[in-house]
Every structure is written in structure tokens, then in C-alpha cells.
Amino acid sequence: MTNPSPPQPSWRQIGRHAVFPNATHDEVARFDFLMRLNMHLAQAVQPGVKLAYDTRVAPAFAAEHGRQPADRHEVRKAMQKDLHYQLWSALRRNTMEQRQQAGRSVVFRQLAQLRAAADKINEGASTLKLDSSIVQPRYASVVDIHCMPGNYHTEEVARDIAPGANYDAGLFVTTAGALGSYSDGGGQAVVDWLKKNKPGWSPKRILDIGCTIGHNAVPLAQAYPDAQVVAIDTAAPVLRYGHARAVSLGVGNIEFQQASGEAVPFQEGEFDLVTTAMFWHETSTKAMPRIMKEVHRVLAPGGLTLHLEQPQYQNMAPFEAFMRDWDSYNNNEPFWTRMHEVDLDALMTQSGFPSGAYFETTMQAKVDRTLFPAPAGSEPGSHEDYGRTPKWTAFGAIKPGALA
Ligand SMILES: C[S@@+](CC[C@H](N)C(=O)[O-])C[C@H]1O[C@@H](n2cnc3c(N)ncnc32)[C@H](O)[C@@H]1O
Questions:
Q1: What is the pTM of this model?
Q2: How far is the CA of 225 from the centre of ligand 1 (A)?
Q3: Domain at 178-371+388-398, CATH class
Q4: Which residues contact 361 (CB under 8 A, 6 or more apart)?
Q5: Given a cut of 70, is residue 386 above it in pLDDT?
Q6: Ligand 1 pocket, 209 CB below 6 A?
């Protein structure tokens, strides 16, 4: 059967908790407008970019060079002159800037109340460990990543949580609800994969590196309530927010700790499971091997490491790689382009995992039925019914040995 148009979720449907910002009627309207503009760009304008490439840009390139573009860089240089591409790209960048403005204005006008709510939960909590000696890495502080002023770490007031609240409020807008009402579709996909591929397994200690507000660590903690989850990040404001968010959602088995993945403050072999979600593309060429060596070091013999990311460019058609590369050149994601050409198998082998341990798999976010009710006649539990949920590549390895 043909897929019906997906319902359009509203920002009003976001899952609430004690530190989630409130929005007025007009603020909700602004978020919803931006979300629908994003959907319109993806569904109605973006297909024209491919059409422009196929019918104008690629033929002109072939006429000039006597061949097709060899890689994403040649496609980009040719496409940058195309008016339809320029229109789509400029609007996409603009929605990102407006989304940041919308989130920050909502958060800043109620920052005192939000911070008080976070303070009430965080004060004296042994599950929030901040360390002011942690230096924000250059790759996470020099550029305002995805147009987010001040990044994840900037504190404009004492005990700031604004970057976390802005991130939480805006993720729903940029993903148009496709990650679910708690924007945790990535973490839920990891849990589904683990339950299917490691049935009966109960990791005792789980480490999540670069957790931001912990929205993808929470489903892991919920799925394995007896596990102790440690979620680390270098940025204090997102940890304060993430801790208060998790506690308010009734999740008490996550310890949020300010620490760098480049120097994980735990002993060798302490974790049965080490995860990251959409993390590596915001690091650097030098940091990646350092962090992967740490992953290998803190993983217990027999332990599993699993990393959710967008697919690598090897074996990808140049046009698709060019489209995926958009964020690097237009959305302040400077490492995105380089990260997606790294040989991840070699990276893991050089970090201590044995040759042949590396594996790749795909994961798909679960459809949140509160946002997207199943269309009549669709397969129960089908993930494909609206074709809207994101699909990721995940990679990982098992460290040789047997878990204690
Ligand atoms: C793209 S966000 C990760 C998003 C999150 N994991 C998720 O599930 O969507 C990158 C995060 O990594 C953090 N970060 C950057 N470098 C880091 C490092 N060396 N160690 C730990 N966290 C780091 C940033 O502060 C930021 O919160």
C-alpha cells in the first residue's frame, strides 16, 4: 500500500519533565513553523536538488570534463553554482539559525526558574560529579557547532543549564519528532538491537561517552535497571540538565560525570558495555584514536562496544556523500566530512581490538505512536510505515575474553 502523508507532530507533544522549558502559544507556533519548514524542505524542496544534479549539473560537468564527478568534493563544487541547491541550502541553514534563536529565547526568559528546578534535584546528589579542572577540547569549543551559540559548555550564569535546555527543546524541531517525544529514538534503537542480538544479557556497568543531556543513555538505564550507567561529557551545563532530567523521569541508575573520553577516569576493564551516540563526528583526527584506545582500555574482557553514527562515505555514491556532507560546510560541523571517511575498522584495530573484531550493523529508530499513530492497514510494529524514522549505521567490537 502507498504510504499516507505522515501526521505533523507539534512541539506541544514533547515529553515533559521537571526541567523542561514551558512555551507560550506564540513560542509553540514558532517551533512548529520551523519544524514544518524543515519537513517541507526535506520532502518537497530537497528532491529538486537531486533533479537539478541529474538534469543540469551532472550533464554540464560531463560535457566539460568528459566524465562524471569522481567524488563528493567535485559534486559540491559543481552544485554550489546551482540556484535550486542554493535556495534549499540557504533555507536549511536559516531554519537551523532560527531554531537556535527560538530555543534560546524560550530558555533565557525562564532560566531562573529552570535553574532553581535543576538545583533542587542536583544539590548534594552523588550521581552528579562535576570537575572544573576538565578543559573543553578545542574541537568542541572553537566553532559554534550546528549554529549553537556558545556550544555545550558556555556558562553565562553560575550553575548554568541553558545549553542543555535549549538542546532538549530544539532537537524535536530539527528532527520533526522522528526521534520520538523524548528525542531518544537512538537510545531505544540501541536497546532493541541489544535485546535482539544479546538476548538475556544484562550488562552490569555501562559507559556512555559524550552523553550531552543523556537522552540516549536513559533508555539504556531503563532497559537495564540493575546496571550502573556512567554518562560522561566534558560540558558541565548539559550534565547538570541531563542529571536533573533523568532523575525527574524516574531514572536513578545513571551517574553523570564531567570527564573527557580522551582520559576516561576509570580503571581498566570496568565496563561491560561502552557506547556513544552521534559523537565521533564532533571530535577530531587526533582525538578519535585517543578516545578509541580509552574505550578498549576500560572495556572488560568479553565486553561490547557499540557506536551509533551516520554511515561512512566508503562505497557511497558521490551525490549522496555530497548531500550528507552538507553539515560540514553549512552547519558548523567541521569534522563531519573527515570523520566519515575514517577507516573505522583500522581505527579499532590500532586501538587494541583484534583484527576481525570490528562489525557494522544498521539500526532504525522506533516510531513513537503517540506522535505518529499507525496508519490503517499497516503491519503492526512496522518501522517503515511512514518511512520517516532515521536509520543509522552502528559499529563496534567485542573485546576478547569472557565477562566476569
Ligand atoms: C553531538 S553531541 C553527542 C550527542 C549525544 N550523545 C546524543 O545521544 O545525541 C557531542 C557531545 O560530546 C561532548 N564531547 C565532546 N568532546 C568530548 C570528549 N572528548 N569527551 C567527552 N565528551 C565530549 C560534547 O560536549 C557534546 O555534548
A1: 0.95
A2: 24
A3: alpha beta
A4: 193, 197, 393, 394, 395, 396
A5: no
A6: yes
